[in-house]
Amino acid sequence: MEWLTKFPEMDRSGLREFKKTVDNAFTSFSRNYGEGIENFFDPLLSFLVAFEKLFLNTPWPITIFAILLICWLASRSIIIIAGTFLSFLLIGYFGMWEDTMSTLAIILVATLLCICIGIPIGIAMARSNKVQALILPILDVMQTIPSFVYLIPVVMLLGIGKVPGLIAVCIYAIPPIVRLTNLGIRLVDKDVLEAAESFGANYWQKLFGIQIPLALPTIFAGVNQTIMMALAMVVIASMIGVQGLGLPVLRAISNQYLALGLMNGLAIVVLAIIFDRVTQRIGKRMQRYKSD
Amino acid sequence: MNNFIKIKNLYKIFGNNTTEALNLVKTGLSKEKLLEKTNCVLGLNNINLNIPKGKIHVIMGLSGSGKSTLIRHLNRLIEPTFGEITIDGVNVLELNNKDLLEYRQKNMSMVFQKFALFPHKTILENISYGLMVQNISEQIYKEKSQFWLKRVGLEGYDNYYPNQLSGGMQQRVGLARALATDAEILLMDEAFSALDPLIRAEMQDVLIDLQLELKKTIVFITHDLDEALKIGERISILRDGFVVQDDNPQNIILNPSDDYVSDFIKDINRSRVIKAKSIMTKSVSISKENVPIIDSEMVLEEVLQEITKTKNYFVLVKDKKDKIIGRITLNELLTGIQRPRKEIKKYA
Question: pTM, whole model, 2 decimals?
Answer without folding.
Answer: 0.84
